[in-house]
Design goal:
The complex is a heterodimer of chains A (395) and B (167).
Chain A: E1 6-10, H1 22-36, E2 40-46, E3 61-65, E4 68-73, H2 81-92, H3 99-107, H4 113-122, E5 128-131, H5 137-143, E6 150-152, H6 165-173, E7 176-179, H7 182-192, E8 199-201, H8 215-220, E9 226-230, H9 239-253, E10 258-262, H10 271-274, E11 277-279, H11 285-294, E12 297-300, H12 309-316, E13 321-324, H13 328-337, E14 340-343, H14 346-358, H15 360-377, H16 380-392
Parallel strand pairs in A: 1-2, 1-5, 2-4, 5-6, 6-7, 7-8, 9-10, 9-12, 10-11, 12-13, 13-14
Antiparallel strand pairs in A: 3-4
Helix pairs in contact in A: 2-3, 12-15
Chain B: H1 15-31, H2 38-43, H3 48-51, H4 55-68, H5 86-147
Classes of the chains: A alpha/beta (395), B mainly alpha (167).
């Protein structure tokens, strides 16, 4: 078994400073740790930063970012956005696509011919190519260049795109997959019959931190208990559901519980709840961690997760999770860690939140259990061990 | 290639057990009608697609829907979040509302009648098909008994269907 020394990571976006999407953060973190462990790591990405417009916001070229040699390539500017959106709308409505429509959709997703040309020319220099997430043209086309040495980091969700025949073909073609969780691997098995022997569950490491649970409330003058969510605010992430639930919870129980949000996107909430939402937008990691540490619970209402980075961060802050049972991944994390509870519908949510609010000892025990779990299962040495074992065995 | 994952068990905390206790409490309260509440019906609007496979939830949701069927046509406080021109804007909105409310009341009261009829129809359909299913199950059991087939509990388990997301 030879050591995979020369690695190339591919993701459609790369942030030189902050964070830019969960999957991109995960790939960047894995790349940085592989480089720190002495591997030669190159990162190929596009000049885009915004996942709606895919506009070339950064200058193309090669730059040193920390320990990484990053190549920025322009996004193709001849994509037929209208065709892409038309087919995507068909998918959302559950219309079965023809193979030709599927191909049109992926080829008009975010693509970079320059990136693929580079990979074609230099792919022989690398031992392994790690590309993800699964649903973008950049990943799809890159996986066709050197499939025998490509490992997908798919960040797979149970969503309409995952059922496309062309994406199934991509999973069949590549040398293996690095999944973030066992439920994600189970989903690939269910959708594509993906063999367990071609995959590994790796995940991402998190650096432990300490945060004062009282600091955030003190700074903001918050005197009432609050629950928290961090991340993009959109229907797919379940944030409107969380707002509706908290609104009903306040009205039915008479408890004055606030909602603290960090991240991006508009907040869709009943008007009467708006006065009880503290929307912080983008904040520093320190602020976010302190806000998490003071929350009665970190509520994760999304059913589209392959890992759940923010839930793990909340556990590191010592805060229990309250997650949607429809997410097999988040439920799995809560079950394994004993760090959180899960709800199927509003009555479950109300009962669980009342219990958490009324039982500080339980909150502390769940939070402590979650923290221990993250420090053990997602400590970087453990993740690196899983990553390198997968790379060496070609997954 | 996958390695065994660890289980971290904090002393005295068993999330699975806690969730089971919470669900038992929810079941009891549902039977007592604690959750038959229009506010819950409205709160579940984003979650219904995920609940459609749950028989118990459909019954519960129909109860909530019965509570929610009437559109609230009562007067409501008019507020203005902007400070600048806040009071004149509120006065203007109140004037417009006073001029229009007679017509909206007429519309909404008709809508309430339609909603009520629709919920009654859905409840009727649910009861009708539930009764049909019970009758068919009874007949299948009777036919199986006559043919000497083993009772359902003694049969080997059926192969699982596609893995669902339901908890």
């Amino acid at each position: 078994m030879s050591r995979a020394d020369r690695l190339v990571f591919i993701a459609p976006r790369f942030s030189e400073t902050g964070t830019i999407g969960g999957a991109e953060t995960l790939l960047k973190s894995l790349a940085e740790h592989a480089a720190a462990a002495g591997r030669t790591v190159t990162f190929l990405t596009t000049c885009a930063q915004d996942h709606f417009s895919w506009a070339n916001a950064l200058p193309p070229g090669r730059r040193r970012c920390g320990g990484l040699d990053v190549h920025f390539f322009p996004v193709d500017d001849d994509r037929d956005v209208a065709a892409f959106l038309r087919i995507q709308a068909q998918m959302d409505r559950g219309v079965a696509l023809t193979p030709r429509d599927e191909e049109t959709w992926i080829q008009n997703s975010v693509n970079s011919r320059a990136l693929c040309e580079h990979l074609r020319a230099h792919g022989g220099d690398y031992d392994r190519i790690l590309a993800g997430p699964y649903l973008f043209g950049v990943t799809y086309n890159a996986s066709r260049v050197w499939p025998a040495k490509t490992l997908l980091v798919p960040c797979l969700h149970d969503e309409p795109f995952a059922y496309l025949g062309i994406l199934r073909g991509m999973f069949d073609r590549v040398a293996g997959c690095l999944f973030n969780s066992e439920p994600e691997r189970d989903l690939a098995r269910r959708l594509y019959g993906y063999p367990a022997g071609k995959s590994a569950v790796v995940g991402m490491g998190l650096e432990p931190f300490t945060a004062d649970p009282a600091a955030f409330a003190r700074r903001r003058g918050l005197t009432r208990p609050y629950v928290m969510y961090s991340g993009r605010r959109e229907t797919l992430k379940g944030t409107p559901l969380l707002c509706d639930y908290l609104h009903a919870f306040r009205a039915r129980t008479g408890r004055d519980v606030k909602l603290v949000l960090t991240g991006s996107g508009p907040v869709e909430a009943p008007p009467a709840l708006l006065d009880h939402i503290l929307d912080l937008g983008f904040v520093s990691e320190q602020d976010k961690h302190e806000a998490m540490a003071g929350a009665a619970a970190f509520v994760h209402p999304s059913v589209n997760e392959s890992f759940g980075i923010v839930l793990l961060e909340a556990w590191l802050a010592g805060t229990p999770g309250l997650v949607h049972a429809g997410s097999a991944v988040l439920r799995w994390q809560c079950r394994r860690s004993n760090g959180g509870l899960w709800f199927r519908h509003y009555p479950d949510f109300e009962e669980a939140l009342l219990r958490l609010l009324d039982d500080p000892a339980l909150r502390r025990a769940l939070g402590a259990s979650g923290r221990r779990y993250v420090q053990t299962a997602y400590a970087w040495p453990a993740v690196e061990q899983r990553l390198f074992a997968a790379l060496e065995s070609r997954a | 290639m996958s390695e065994p994952w660890l289980e971290i068990n904090a002393p005295g905390v068993d999330a699975e057990q806690l969730v089971a206790e919470l669900r038992a409490a929810v079941e009891r309260k549902t039977a007592e009608g604690v959750y038959a509440d229009a506010r819950i019906a409205r709160a579940e609007r984003m979650n219904l697609a995920r609940l459609r496979d749950s028989d118990e939830f459909l019954n519960f949701y129909l109860q909530c829907l019965r509570e929610a069927t009437c559109v609230d046509i009562a007067d409501f406080p008019i507020r203005e979040r902007r400070r600048w021109l806040g009071r004149p804007l509120v006065a203007l909105k109140q004037l417009i509302w006073n001029l229009l409310k007679f017509y909206t009341y007429r519309l909404w009261s008709q809508q309430n009648q339609v909603n009520g009829l629709l919920v009654t129809a859905v409840e009727g359909l649910d009861q009708k098909y539930a009764a049909k299913l019970r009758e068919l199950e009874r007949r299948v059991q009777a036919l199986e008994a006559a043919a000497g087939a083993p009772p359902p509990a003694a049969r080997p388990p059926a192969p699982p269907g596609p893995a669902g997301e339901g908890a």
